[in-house]
Fold this sequence. Notes:
Blueprint: E1 3-7, H1 13-27, H2 34-42, H3 49-54, E2 58-63, E3 66-74, E4 79-85, H4 94-108, E5 113-119, H5 123-128, E6 132-140, E7 146-155
Antiparallel strand pairs: 1-2, 2-3, 3-4, 5-7, 6-7
Helix pairs in contact: 1-2
Amino acid sequence: MPIALRPALPLDIDALWALRTVAVRVSCATHYAPEQIAVWTASPVPDFYPAMLAAGDGIVAMQGETIAGYAMLDAVKHEVDAVFVDPARAGLGIGKRLLAALEQLARERGIARLHLSASLNAVPFYQAAGFVALREEAYAHASGISLASVTMEKELTAA
């Protein structure tokens, strides 16, 4: 079944957060301790998500009537906030399409350089998309835990 991209809507928040929780539990288990993942996935939807979605800064990948993945742009910080794909649909190029659409959205907003804090398991994905690792860091997650991550950035070329 083909994948279609559409803007993420505020009414999608609960479904997006549920997908993110499953993705973290499955995809991050290779690089983080179960205790870290338990705290990480127990955190609530960030307060800023509704505003980001209302501003048009989210993209959803649909496979039929099912959300297969999503991506979020923090246009104020020039940051990739999230790219998550349903683990059952991994390897289909959904994340790559979402990230490319997010980069285009950033260009449309006048952003010339994107940065992000990549979970350790996601570093190869972002490197394949042209992001460059700048440094390893301890990411202070909103849940209160510290997660090993890699700060990355990409210069956006004109479309």
